[in-house]
Each structure stands twice: as structure tokens, then as C-alpha cells.
Amino acid sequence: MIKTLRNLFKQDKEKFVVPKSVQAVIPLKTMWEDGIFLVGRNKYAKTFKFEDINYAVASREDKEAMFLEYSELLNALDSGATTKITINNRRLNKADFEQTILIPMAEDNLDKYRKEYNKMLLDKATGANSIVQDKYVTISVCKKNIEEARNYFARVGADLIGHFNRLGSKCTEMDANDKLRIFHDFYRTGEETAFSFDMAQTMRKGHDFKDYICPDSFEFEKDYFRIGNRYGRVIFLREYAAYIKDSMVAELCELNRNMMLSVDVVPVPTDEAVREVENRLLGVETNITNWQRKQNQNNNFSAVIPYDLEQQRKESKEFLDDLTTRDQRMMFAVLTMVHTADTKEQLDNDTEALLTTARKHLCQFAVLKYQQMDGLNTALPFGVRKIDALRTLTTESLAVFIPFRVQEIYHKDGVYYGQNVISKNMIIANRRHLLNGNSFILGVSGAGKSFTAKEEMVNIILTDPNADVLVIDPEREVRQEVA
């Protein structure tokens, strides 16, 4: 149980220090305004948010190019730091939707059309997936003080932004408010609009910033936990298949529930990796030599090397070739996933659906037993890893867990253009926010080109009563219909 804690932390001009009594459940010790958090002894973490790209609908050649570019991003990760890649599935908040998308009334003779249009949007939003995916990269590193951490994150952040730009994705830094909003929306589902945090005001009152993100209660059981009135469970990827398709992560995140999937990456320096693989290869060769010596002592000079020893030799050589000639790096990785539901029965059904999806890809998820709190802290983008289920992977093997799927178009004060084929979410676009807002409507005869143009005219007139709509109509089609 977490109770409201006040007047229990040290005050500083620019940071918060959290009491030790709640650090076990939420591992945040100190917070700075620029989004850097102290999550361990001399361990600092910073989170970056990146946008999705149209990976699922790309051609085979484009997918290969994106895959290679993403592999370069993983290769560029610093071996002295730990990286966490997180996919956050969150439900679209109805209040936020109504505030940003619905057309406000103008108290003129067109309000009845605005009400009908808003009703149509609400019906579309209810029937759609209503799940929004946010993606984050959290870098955590051990430094002596905050100034060294700031310099490090400035350099690493610039590299990350450059790599994501080459992928066609936009990467931005998150400040303290943005990162606290992630935890608040996860812990207090349904209260997203109630988030309000002013660091200066809170410090002046002597309040703890965790008052704004903590749920009313936490209860950890053997294989699940409770957050207030909701249930949650953490699972991790225990068995990996020899071959995994790049669509596995996208299929896992298709479930229409609040969930987070995180991949913790610990890069190994190349020289240490090569030395380790050479030692393993030397050990395999020694085992083969000893086996052959025993056969020779028994006058069996034509014995064939056992399959398992031959396979170990082959895989070790391939691994060494990957590290030395194919520009691969050795990395330790663990995949964790937390999902929540309203009832225990629904939670069990969702867990079985996720386990079935993994089994379809010849992988095996497992529920963490008596480690739900550690698993929750690992899955959320705090910047800590408390689950020791690391698997040794190369860059290409890790890049299979690619976080990209399809780009969502969701602009404030935009116009409804249809439904995304992949994610089933609404396409809300405001062409004034684009670099080039011009458009052409192309299609065969009878496909609805004129109707689409007229529909956009109506949207513009309803959204902005003072807008001027100029129609150049040589065939007098629009004039005849209006008449």
C-alpha cells in the first residue's frame, strides 16, 4: 500500500529527492526539470520519444532498408550504458478526443450540421481500435554527478535523433512533466485529464511529486498485481525460436488493452565479445580433440564427430564471423511485458492470448512468479532492469524485435479522412500542419472524387465559419447541385 507522503523529502532549487520508503515500488530517487531521473546509485536515466513509421505497409526492399538502418541504430548504442526500448499501448481518452477533434458550436444556422458531424466522429471513434501507441527509448548510465550525466545525454541524444531521422522517424527529448505523465496515465487509467504538475508550485508546498502519479493502492500477489481497482500481470520472453519474424512485436501489441512492452539492451564491447567467443570456440575444439583421443585409444580411427559437438563448433564459428566480418555486435537482451485489465478473468484471458501469439512464433512467454514488482519496474520506462533473464543476441537477432508498425495521422483540429487499414484507427489530418498542404484527388469515374472534394469543403466551412472556399468549376457541377 502506498500512502500519500508529504514533507518527507529534501528540497533543492532544481530537483526532487524521494523518500526511501517508496523507492522500492517506484524506483525514482531524484528528478530534474530537463527530464533526467536518478534511478540508482550514481545511475541517471533520460527518456526520448520517437514516432512510428510505415514499416508494415512498405515494400520488401523498403523493409530491408529500414531493418538495416535500425540495425545501425542498435550498433551505435554505447556499451557503457543500458538502453530500454518501450512500446506503450494506451486507450484514447474520450475527454481529450472531444476537446481536440470535435467541432465546437458557433451558434449559427450550421450548428445542427456540426452536431451530426460530431456524432459521426464519436461513432467512428467507438467502433475503431481506440488504442494509441507511444514509443520511447530510455538511456541509463552511471555518472559521478548530474553535470556529467547532462553532457552525456546531450551527446547521445544528438546521435539518437540523427539515426531516427534517417529512418524517417522524429525523435524528441522528454522533460520531467512528459515522463511523469507516462506513469500517471498507466497507474491512474481513466484519470488522464486530471494530471497537473507544476514543479515550482509543488516544491513550494513541500509535496512529493509521486502524489501525482501513484495509484491509490498496490497489492502484489504471486503471479499478478492490483493497481487500485485494476489487475495487471508481467510476463517475459523465456524461450526464443531459432527464427523469428519481424511482425512478432506488432502482433503482441495488437491486443486492445493498456500494456507496455520493453526490450532491455545491454551492449557488450566488441573486443570483450570477440575474446569471449574465441574462448568458447577453443573450449569446443578441446572437447572435440579429447573425444577423438578417446576413440583413437579404442582403435576406432574412423569415428564421426557427434552431431552436438559439430553443431557447437559451427555455431561458434558463425558467431565469431558475425562479430569480426559482418559488422555485428554482441548484446544481452530481455523482453518484458505488462498488461492490465478490469477483472481477474479478463486478465487471465489476455495472458493466454499473448502466450498463444508467442507460441505461434515458436517462442515461449512465462509469467513472473513472486517477481511482479521487479517485473513492473523493468517493463515501465524508469531506466532500471531487475529481471535477470538475459539472452545473448547479435545485432540482427535483436533488430527482429523492431518496434515500428504504421504511422498514425492524428492532428489537432484536423479533418476526418477515413480509417487506417493496419491499425483501424481514425485518420485525422490538418493539412495546414504539413510542409506542403496541397492535394490532388485521383480516381476512376464514379469512385467519389467530387463527393470527397465537397465533403472537405463542408468540413472547412463547419470548422471555420469565416473561411473562404473558392471553387473553380468549368463544368458547373457544384453550382448545379447547390441550385
Characterize the structure shown.
- The chain has helices at residues 60-75, 94-100, 111-127, 146-167, 176-187, 199-205, 248-252, 270-297, 307-325, 344-360, 372-379, 395-399, 449-463, 477-482, and strands at residues 15-17, 30-32, 37-40, 43-50, 81-91, 131-142, 171-173, 218-220, 225-227, 230-239, 259-267, 330-341, 364-367, 391-394, 415-419, 426-429.
- It is an alpha+beta fold.
- The chain folds into 2 domains: 15-92 and 130-268 and 330-399, 3-Layer(aba) Sandwich (Vanillyl-alcohol Oxidase, Chain A, domain 3), CATH 3.40.462; 270-325.
- It starts with 14 loop residues before the first strand and ends with a helix.
- Residues 1-13 and 18-23 have low confidence and may be disordered.
SSE layout:
Elements lengths: L14 E3 L12 E3 L4 E4 L2 E8 L9 H16 L5 E11 L2 H7 L10 H17 L3 E12 L3 H22 L3 E3 L2 H12 L11 H7 L12 E3 L4 E3 L2 E10 L8 H5 L6 E9 L2 H28 L9 H19 L4 E12 L2 H17 L3 E4 L4 H8 L11 E4 H5 L15 E5 L6 E4 L19 H15 L13 H6 L1
Antiparallel strand pairs: 1-2, 2-3, 3-4, 4-6, 4-7, 5-6, 5-11, 8-9, 9-10, 10-12, 10-13, 11-12, 12-14, 15-16
Helix pairs in contact: 1-4, 8-9
